[in-house]
Amino acid sequence: MTQQKEEMTLTEHLSELRKRLIYVLSIFILGLVAGFLVADPVYQYLTKAETAQGFVLHAFSFWDGIGIYMKIAGLFSLVITLPFTVFQLWKFVSPGLRPRERKATLKYVPYVFLLFLIGLAFSYYVVFPMALSFTSSITEKMGLVETYGMKQYFSFLFGIVLPVSLLFELPLIIMFLTGLRILNPIRLRKMRRVAYFVLIFIAVVVTPPDFISDFLVMIPLLLLYEISVFLSGFVYRKQLAADAEAESRYIRAEDKQSAV
């Protein structure tokens, strides 16, 4: 009987997960449709920006134009879908949380959108121009003529912008996982060396191979991790205080029962 009950519970969990994934996929598809409506204005803005001046972009296949529109639509849909995905994740795990934890983790969801936009702005206006300037200077020193396809230009752009934007979600992810009691500041401090190595590696990969560019990207990423540790400690202390209060109430209730 117990095994049957566990199997039913597992089936219910899988059914619930499938329902959440369908919701996310539906919003992503709607976001793609909306993304196609804004793809042309975004494309015009990106190609008229200062970073794109001096480049004559070419189409080397019949699908290059629609491919760029699809990438823009996909990025737009990701921005819209990301907070909704986090909300669906919260809905999936919330039945296993205490009411206090459920309320505490829910408030992180709106900030997913804000942090992604901040990361998007930083990566496009700071990291991308540095990377583009460096690669162009190397090409010029080699005496090569810069003849780029629009596909290559936008692949280079999105290959830098998207990873850096997602990294800006790190503090929120750490707080969310701390709220779920999966992480805590003690564990994060022990992981600091490994985390620093990973973040420095990412900074070196997404930027030109010169110290200044690496440094300008590396410092914000390391600060993001330290902010994450600080915020995790804030959430963790509130959890300890709540646990202590709950334990105190339980002891008082036990004492009253004993007195009776």
From TrEMBL:
Entry's family note: Belongs to the TatC family.
Protein name in the entry: Sec-independent protein translocase protein TatC
Any one GO molecular function term: proton motive force dependent protein transmembrane transporter activity
HAMAP family, A to Z: TatC
Organism: Paenibacillus taichungensis
Subunit relationships: Forms a complex with TatA.
Source species taxonomy: Bacteria, Bacillati, Bacillota, Bacilli, Bacillales
Top-level taxon of origin: Bacteria
Function: Part of the twin-arginine translocation (Tat) system that transports large folded proteins containing a characteristic twin-arginine motif in their signal peptide across membranes.
Topology of this chain in the membrane: Multi-pass membrane protein
Single Gene Ontology BP annotation: intracellular protein transmembrane transport
A Pfam family hit: TatC
Gene field: tatC
InterPro entries recorded: Sec-indep_translocase_CS, TatC
GO cellular component: TAT protein transport complex
Subcellular localization: Cell membrane; Membrane
Record keywords: Cell membrane, Membrane, Protein transport, Translocation, Transmembrane, Transmembrane helix, Transport
Residues spanning the membrane: 21-46, 66-90, 111-134, 154-182, 194-212, 218-236
